[in-house]
Structures are given as C-alpha cells and as structure tokens.
Amino acid sequence: MSLSLRNVRKSYREPGGHLLPVLNVEQFDLNSGEQAVLLGQSGGGKTTLLNVIAGISTADAGEIRIGGVDLASLPEPARDRFRAERIGFIFQTFHLLPAFSALENVLLGMSFSGQSNKAYARELLTRVGLEQRLDHRPAQLSVGEQQRVSVARALANRPQLMLADEPTASVDVANQELILKLIRETCEENQIALLLVTHSQEVASQFGRVEQLAEFNRAAQG
Prior knowledge:
This protein has eight helices and nine strands. The protein is of the alpha/beta class. The chain has a single domain (3-201, 214-221), classed as Rossmann fold (3-Layer(aba) Sandwich), CATH 3.40.50. The strands form two sheets. The chain has a five-stranded parallel β-sheet with strand order 6-7-8-3-9, with helices on both faces. A four-stranded antiparallel β-sheet has the order 2-1-4-5. α3 (102-111) packs parallel to α5 (143-155).
C-alpha cells in the first residue's frame, strides 16, 4: 500500500475562536501504481489534504502511512528527508526558485534526495515542450511554462507517491493534455501512486477512479 489514511482530521481556528473543520477522512487507500482523482470545488479542503499527506502540515488526529511509514511518528528533519525522497508534489503556486534556470530548478529538486541526473532532467523538460527553455529563469517563462517546470521537478526523483494540486489550472487545453499525459505515463512507468486533486470534470473524466470531495471528506458536508 503506497498511501493509507485512517480517521484523519484537521481544523483551523477562526479569528473569533471557533474551530472550522476542514478534513474528516475516515478511510482512504491507494496502491502502488494506482491513479486516483479527488474532485471538488475550491475551499473544500483538497489542498489541505495534500499538505497533510506530505507532512507539510500536521493533522489534528488520525494516521497517515506512506509505504507503511507513519509520517506523524517521524521527527521534522526525518519527515523532510522522507518527503524529498519518497513524495513528488506538484503545487498550484509552483515554488520555483527565481535565481535558477528551468533545468537548475529540476536538478535542485533532485539534489534534496541526494540525486543528480542531468540527462533525465533534460528529458523531462523536453517531454513538456521546454527543450528550448532549459536555461530560462522563471521570470522569463510564462505561467504555463512555469507549471510545466514544476511538473518535471516533481517527477524527477521517480517518487513512491505523487501528489498533484490542480496541475492543469494554469495552462491551455493543449498543454493540459501534455501535462496529464506526462504525469500519468511517468507514474505508470515507475509504479508511482498518483493522487490528483482538481475542480475540473474534464480532467477527472480521464481517470478510472474518481472520489467526490463531499463523499470523501465528511467535513466538507457540514
């Protein structure tokens, strides 16, 4: 089992002191190589869920296991290493380093887990149509091109689990198809479990397993 969630809960305290439930996930499992989509509107807790799974945020309660490892049991430095080595994350906001080129951003992502494979980094960037933009910094790239760099970076270490937060939200239809194809093919080739969250019915329709947010997350119902 690549990902296992049990009774995961997360709330935020509002300015008035009231607790706002955001996550209440009773059970979710994702096998190695399996691809699933979580479909729901903005504000329903999709991004929070991915952050909790990756150990960027901590859950209030519950168990999150990736490859049998309970992330909550790890001290922060070990959790950071685990995330760098075992989890790929495609963020909505890209998180590219502005002083580095597209190629350097992908290579830097590799270095966090002690790897460096320039040929594979070039291959990934070529597959997302950026073979002529390898030496361009983020400010010299369009928003869609920056998203494609972030996709290549997330795939570079061939992680055990890939988390994708609205990965096609900033690109046109043609590049949407290209990005989804790259993510899905690379995950399939390397038996990477994929959990992708989106508000797009069109994106969700391309996957065999689709979880509706309102059914998946009981906090979203109330």
